[in-house]
């Protein structure tokens, strides 16, 4: 009788130890999964047959302005995501594609850099092929707001100032390549993200 009780207790102890060990393994796996971050998606260019030659973020500097393209997403103009952004910020609703970018601009020069009524000249553009560029679109909800962190239109950067924001573009054509052009105070620079297709 005593032997049977001892055997039963030992069996229960072993079973409990096994379950406890499995539980710890599960907890360890769950903890590892929780701390492993999924990669941040910075573009969907592959969806449009565009193969990157450089990974984002990409920085181009000219005339004291540093422009960093952090993220670029292309959406069919009729897609739910494009329509949501267009309605939220008051963008125009025409063309084939709506392009949403996340950028960081920084004034590394000694004078003010701006795009406003005082200086309406665009400081950067994004070429996409066949002589075409993405059309910078005006977010009507922010048209009077400078340095918007949600949807950029006018901005003024004093020396040393930096701004991370989003900018919307329209494209009426197709995509062959993607190049960033800067033209600031007589100085220019360019950087290809996707090289021209032959």
Termini, distance in Å? 88 Å
Unreliable stretches: 2-33
Placed side by side, the strands forming the largest sheet appear as: 1-2-3-9-7
Strand content is: 25-35%
The major β-sheet equals: 5 strands, antiparallel
Overall spatial form: globular
How much is the radius of gyration in Å?
Answer: 27 Å
What is the overall pLDDT average?
86
The helicity comes to 10-25%
Q: Give the tally of β-strands.
A: 11
**Helix and strand pattern:** HEEHEEEEEEEEE
Which structural class fits the helix and strand makeup? alpha+beta
Number of DSSP helical runs: 2
Describe the overall structure.
The protein is of the alpha+beta class and 198 residues long. It has 2 helices and 11 strands, in the order H-E-E-H-E-E-E-E-E-E-E-E-E. The chain has helices at residues 2-35, 80-89; strands at 58-62, 65-76, 97-107, 113-115, 124-129, 132-133, 135-136, 155-157, 162-171, 178-184, 187-194. Strand 5 (124-129) and strand 6 form a beta hairpin. The longest helix has 34 residues, at 2-35. The protein starts with a helix and ends with a strand.
Q: Layout of helices and strands, plus pairs?
A:
Layout: H1 2-35, E1 58-62, E2 65-76, H2 80-89, E3 97-107, E4 113-115, E5 124-129, E6 132-133, E7 135-136, E8 155-157, E9 162-171, E10 178-184, E11 187-194
Antiparallel strand pairs: 1-2, 2-3, 3-9, 4-8, 5-6, 5-10, 7-9, 10-11
């Amino acid at each position: 009788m005593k032997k049977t009780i001892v055997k039963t207790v030992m069996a229960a102890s072993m079973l409990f130890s096994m379950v406890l060990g499995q539980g710890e393994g599960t907890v360890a796996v769950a903890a590892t999964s929780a701390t492993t971050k999924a990669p941040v998606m910075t573009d969907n260019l592959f969806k449009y047959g565009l193969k990157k030659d450089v990974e984002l973020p990409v920085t181009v500097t000219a005339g004291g302005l540093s422009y960093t393209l952090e993220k670029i997403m292309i959406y069919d103009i009729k897609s739910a995501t494009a329509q949501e952004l267009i309605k939220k910020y008051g963008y125009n609703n025409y063309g084939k594609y709506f392009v949403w970018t996340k950028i960081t601009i920084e004034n590394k020069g000694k004078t003010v850099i701006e795009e406003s009524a005082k200086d309406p000249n665009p400081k950067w553009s994004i070429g996409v092929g066949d002589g075409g560029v993405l059309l910078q679109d005006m977010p009507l909800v922010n048209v009077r707001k400078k340095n918007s962190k949600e949807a950029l239109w006018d901005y003024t950067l004093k020396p040393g100032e930096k701004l991370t924001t989003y900018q919307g573009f329209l494209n009426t054509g197709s995509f062959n390549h993607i190049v960033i052009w800067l033209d600031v105070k007589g100085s220019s620079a360019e950087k290809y993200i996707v090289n021209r297709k032959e």
